[in-house]
Specification:
Length: 280
């Protein structure tokens, strides 16, 4: 790939590594981002800060690492994702919160494996564990289902087994919005409402979720992500203006296996947005 490609964004503030469900190690991710010309990269693994030390050690003069995390949040009957940026990973309140979420992930993984077992798909927990560095999440179960030949691809694994309403789906009690905001703020970070148009919410429900997020003290909205179309960026920008939120950008890259999302590839923010990095 062309280094310093003009289509590569200077900022990519939402990415994953093997510390959660990405397929590249933190060091590999940083090396690739640097060679692409990304200048500021946030590592934001699901409910985990385990990759941040390796990422920080791999970052050099050309690339600034933003320590981050993507927290799972339960809001009404839904799961929301909230990204924390510029967090201090040593913060006790954040670490205690993450430990609680990891415990819940382990309980859920066991329950999911039990459900798959009852459906005649045995060995899921060990199988998913082999594909994960820590507690396996739904992505690792999906990869295991594909690897076993139980489904043809990831999309079908979610559609058939893992999505809400499907037989191996297990609800989880994640953080509340207030908790997620407080853990990130106590860690000195900014709180970003992630990928607003990917929850499948109606416009009314999304506005209610954003109102709750603002009310809880949230700082920013991910106006542009790796899958955003131009009209989606404009819609999200309208929400950011309406709720007085700063604007973030992030690819939500998980690795080269997904051809739809590329590291550092995010649409440009509209001119009337105030970027989340304004005061950095
Ligand atoms: P979890 O946090 O364990 O519920 O897993 C959620 C992760 O599953 C997300 O971060 C995505 O990486 C992945 N995911 C969710 N839905 C899909 C889908 N339809 N196809 C592929 N991956 C998905
Ligand atoms: Mn993921
Ligand atoms: Mn997410
Ligand atoms: Mn993500």
């Amino acid at each position: 790939m062309e280094p310093h490609d003009s289509a590569v964004s200077t900022y990519d503030l939402h990415t994953h590594s093997t510390a959660s469900d990405g397929t590249q190690s933190p060091a590999e991710l940083i090396a690739q981002a640097r060679s692409l010309g990304v200048r500021v990269l946030a590592l934001t693994d699901h409910d985990s800060i385990e990759g941040l030390a390796e990422a920080q050690a791999a970052a050099g003069d050309e690339l600034a690492l933003v320590p981050g995390v993507e927290l799972s949040v339960s809001w009404e009957k839904h799961t929301l994702h909230v990204v924390g940026l510029r967090i201090d990973p040593a913060t006790p309140a954040l670490r205690a919160g993450l430990q609680r979420l990891q415990n819940e992930r382990l309980r859920r993984a066991r329950d999911m494996a039990e459900r798959l077992d009852k459906l005649g798909l045995s060995g899921a927990l060990d199988g998913a564990r082999d594909l994960a560095a820590g507690v396996p999440n739904r992505t690792h179960f999906a990869r295991w289902l594909v690897a076993q030949g139980h489904v043809r691809d990831m999309r079908r694994a979610f559609k058939r087994y893992l999505k809400p309403g499907k037989p191996a789906h297990v609800a989880a009690a994640w953080a509340t919005l207030d908790e997620a905001v407080s853990w990130i703020h106590r860690a000195g970070g900014q709180v970003v409402f992630a990928h607003p148009l990917r929850y499948g919410f109606t416009a009314t429900r999304l506005r209610r979720a954003l109102a709750a997020f603002s009310e809880a003290g949230g700082d920013a909205l991910e106006v542009a992500c790796g899958t955003s179309t131009g009209p989606e960026v404009n819609t999200a920008a309208g929400h950011a203006l309406h709720f007085g939120l700063l604007a973030s950008v992030g690819s939500d890259y998980h690795g080269p296996e997904n051809p739809w999302v590329k590291l550092g590839r995010v649409p440009t923010l509209p001119d009337n947005m105030t970027p989340v990095w304004r005061d950095w």
